[in-house]
Amino acid sequence: MKSYKKFWKLGMEELGTKDFDINKDGELIVREGNYQYNILDLIKKFGTPLEIFFPFIIEKRLRNLFETFNYYTKNLQYKGRFYYYFPMKVNQNKEFVLSLISEGANLEVGSANELWLVKRMWEQNQFNSKIKVICNGPKTNYYLSLISELKEKNLNIIPVIEDRTELKALRDYRGDIGVRFDLDVKTKSHWDKKIDRYGFSFQEIMELGKIKNLKIIHYHNSSQVERLEDLINQVKRAIEVFVRVKEKNPTLDTLDLGGGFAVPYLKKKMYTSDQAIKRIIRIVKKTAEKAGIPHPNLICEWGRYVVAPSQITIYKILFEKKIENSIAKKWYIIDGSFMNDLIDTWAIRQKWHVVPVNFMKGLKLTRVWLAGSSCDSDDKYTAGGNYILLPRFDEMGEAEDLYIAFLDTGAYQDALASHHCLLSSPAKIVAQNGILMVARKRETPEEVGKLFGW
Ligand SMILES: Cc1ncc(COP(=O)(O)O)c(C=O)c1O
């Protein structure tokens, strides 16, 4: 018998779909321990387009990171400590950020407005006093004043200096600081830019000499780093630079590896956190020992890796349209928009794992391209000029609509989302411990109009 679960690449740890399965009726289910969510039931209750966030998935992934780092620090007798900082830009939704904080995450912010959210939570006493916050991004005067204010209110807040102007502005800062190194390592990734405007070059960083209260060397080279070797080469270079900077800065004791860990969106096996962490610790340890310095503390800001698999986005197929002379046979038109809800589809040609929510078993499949509901001919998903296999409309009868799920949509898409053709953003629900909560209702025409001054 054909294994449908395998065919749709579900239930596979290495592909991030361990908790996804198909029930006997050919419908998509998600398992949280022994509880299971039937996605078609959720659609019937909340409609489409619909985003479903599963906090248990990020909690599990973060716990796994802590356990793996702890395992290898012990196993390899590494003396430095490990800290996780969640980069808020990856997903600022309250339910995401709070789930991560409650699992022990610290925070990395990239703007004054993100820091303002931190300020609110700090003032409302919602944090354990041990939480730490790293501040990246251009330091406007307002951003700098928030940093000082929170420092005075005893939040452990660490600004990361990105250029000489910031160095001047933070000269008298009375707490720990970091500097950002513009890592000169080639990486296979969409974001590997020949000229990067962030951070100090090696030469500049050496010229800076002694920096008051320097604690952290930080780098962030690119996102979705596809090859483990590239990730490791980044660490190799960064620890070499760390050793050099420490010569003049004995207070320096932490290496911040930034983000970059990739998600297997395409459902092809990639490297695992276990493989990466083991090699990272080995390299840092060896280089530090060779240089005769203590093992540095390690920070990682892997954002996409931790949160992307925790959300799925659901659409109804509204109708189909024949395509002549093409690799795909039909357009399937969805009741949402790629340009609005999953904007990376358009912006960086992001590829996604797409599965049907119903009719996953038994029906004949057809090659389709997906089109959004905006008027824009760019509002489409063609899997990079390939095709998507989905059940055939003429096979399924009139009784039921066809729904599809995009997996791994939990990173970056919400803050980048837009309103082309004034389409409403999807509703978002949170599913945890078998309880469903509406985090954001589907926008009404009045709400969308208001955004544009109506
Ligand atoms: C400074 C910094 N840290 C971490 C991240 C998160 O990267 P990723 O989601 O690839 O792990 C980013 C993303 O742009 C970033 O700019």
Automatic annotation (TrEMBL):
Q: Which family does it belong to?
A: Belongs to the Orn/Lys/Arg decarboxylase class-II family. SpeA subfamily.
> What Pfam families does the entry give?
Orn_Arg_deC_N (PF02784)
Check the record and name the PANTHER family matching this protein: ARGININE DECARBOXYLASE (PTHR43295), BIOSYNTHETIC ARGININE DECARBOXYLASE (PTHR43295:SF9)
- The record's active-site residues are 375 (proton donor)
What sections of the sequence does the record tag as coiled-coil? none
Example GO molecular function: arginine decarboxylase activity
Positions bearing N6-(pyridoxal phosphate)lysine: 89
What's the cofactor? Mg(2+); pyridoxal 5'-phosphate
EC class name: lyase
A biological-process GO annotation:
spermidine biosynthetic process
Keyword list (alphabetical) reads: Decarboxylase, Lyase, Magnesium, Pyridoxal phosphate, Spermidine biosynthesis
**At the top level of its lineage, which domain of life is listed?**
Bacteria
The protein's name in its UniProt record = arginine decarboxylase
Q: Which EC number(s) are documented for this chain?
A: 4.1.1.19
Residues of the Orn/DAP/Arg decarboxylase 2 N-terminal domain: 67-308
